[in-house]
Amino acid sequence: MDQLPKVRDFMKKLLALRQDTRPFTDTSSFFLSGRLSSVDAVELVVFLEEEFGTDFAEIGFDQAKIDSIEAIKSLLQAARVPK
Amino acid sequence: MSANISAAPQEVAPQGLRRLADFRLVPRIDTYPVVVSFAQTVVGKLVLLVLFGLGLAYTEANWLPLLLCLALITFVPGRRRVLVTVSTLIFTFVVPWWYFANPPSEVALLLLVLTLAALLFWCATLWPRSWYGRRPVFFLLCGFSLLIVIASYLPRDTTSYTLVWDFTYAFAKYIWFVCYFLLDRNAPECDSFGLQLGSFRPFWGSTNTPYPKGAAYLRRIEAHDIHQLAVTQLKGLKLLAWSIVIMLFGRLFGFCVYDYLHIPKFPQALSLSANLTPLPWYLCWASLLAGFLESIISLSSFGHRIIAICRVAGFNALRNTYRPLSSRTIAEFFNRYFFYFKELLVDVFFYPFFLRYFKKNRKLRLVGAIFAAACFGNAFYHFVRDLGTIQRLGLRRALVSYQVYVFYCLVLATAISISQLRHRKPAQPGFIRGQLWSSFLVLLFYCLLQVFDSTERSYPLMEHFRFLAHLLNLKL
Question: Min CA distance, B183 vs chain A (Å)?
């Protein structure tokens, strides 16, 4: 999926702003593990809206849906499926 | 596809500094493989529970029933969620039975509240596209506000007055738990009402703020195998030990500051200022600083104890307070100081606003959502929490006397908005420029804001400004 490098890069920057230098994988938890806070979730929401046109008001917001790269991948795939 | 990405190159710190940074007053037992393996055995679990019980006996009045519930959950992990519900019901109806003023009536009220919660949830799931189904939390909060208005205007000394107020008090204890319950309605793996009940003032303790959030959060942080359970329980034991250390430090701090140095408590210093006999400016500062540190110490100790019990029950919840003194921004302190209260404001007020309004204007959207949470949500939470004041003063006078806390919320929301709007930069190099100076400014802000962090309504706003002026050696 070609969006993932962009998402990974964004997460890397977000973690760096929090002085978190630990590595992460596609299944690493960002929010439930406490590595990122809901303040950071806002930045991620705006990024996903602007970059991929995701409408959280429509699909419903849940931090678990953006908790890992894998979760974001599923979210983006689900958002692209026409209803 | 999986990629292992390093966020930034690791800095090489001097060995001495690294050792100092690695030092832990409470050892990281959850990272010792031998201890983790031992905690998975029957004997290990018993030892862990005994040690935890000793800590609980020192800090909790109802430590024995609490320990029995934890033992049951530890040895029957397959039925954890059901046992959490059973334990919660025991701590709701059985343990406090002797403290109820009128047990049958209080039990009936609690049952009524829980039935109403189930009814609200059922309606929201039955008619998801209706006006109520799309915004059940908004409807709930409006309905509760209306209930307070009705209760306030009922004639006193009547049966309906007593009944409505009794119900309002009972419902107020559960309203934020019901909010999380309603927010969980669209989750694909949403729990049954029976399991949800376990998160309504759970047996490990809470205030009106749900620790740790609702059933949806519990599902995600639950230990799924014996290794995760052992690590989570060891983290719980470690956190309880840390809570006791902080509590003892708090007692020592209180003795040194208030008994030995005779620094007056903040309410006393404020009272003297309001009576136009203020303390010298440096004592006002000392009193304010002591009150600020004391509030951090007591909230940390209290929150750690609750989360420790929750962890031993098998849920790897995040701490409520996590290194607030190291916060580099105002928003970060708000997040680190009282995590679950901030999460409640974010889930109930921030996101509903942020995801719906001003989507074309990024700054306005962010500021609006911050004001919805940190200002309106914060003020609303504390106003409906202090029902006794509303009943005593009447609704109009209670609203007018709430001016100090409303001002506090306005300043807090403005500061968080500015903090969030400023472009976040990586930390400056060096400990003093990168960490100490930023943290000092953040703590100074919150310390000064503490002057207005008052829901007691003892003095009008002007008296709080007068105290602020005394801090600067000015007279108002």
Answer: 9
